[in-house]
Amino acid sequence: MLVLTRKTGQEIVIDGDIRITVTSCGDGRVKLGIKAPPHIKVDRSEVAARIAAEDAECVVELACR
Fold first, then answer.
1. How far apart are CA 14 and CA 62, in angstroms?
2. Which residue from 17, 43, 60, 65 has the fewest beta carbons nearer than 10 Å?
C-alpha cells in the first residue's frame, strides 16, 4: 500500500486520468473528491461489498432454477 500525505486542495493522480482531491479535513474526517472516466466504477467499500453480495445472491438464485 502506498501512503501519501496531502493537504486540502492537493490531488493524487492515478494512471493519468483518475484524480483524487482532498476537499476538506477535520473532526476526524477527510473528504475526498474523485474524478474518473465514466467506465471506472467508484464506490465506498461498504457499497461495493453490498453490491457483490447481491450479485452473488442472484447467481445462486439462477443456479437453483
1. 37
2. 65
Sign of the dihedral through C-alpha 56, 57, 62, 63: positive
Q: Which three cell numbers stand for residue 55?
A: 450479485
Report the residue count for the chain. 65
pLDDT tens, 6-19?
Answer: 999 999 999 999 99
CA dist., res. 30 & res. 41, Å (int): 21
And the C-alpha cell for 60? 445462486
Query: For residue range 4-61, what is the model confidence (pLDDT) as tens digits?
Result: 999 999 999 999 999 999 999 999 999 999 999 999 999 999 999 999 998 888 766 6
Neighbour order of strands in the sheet with 29-35: 11-14, 18-26, 29-35
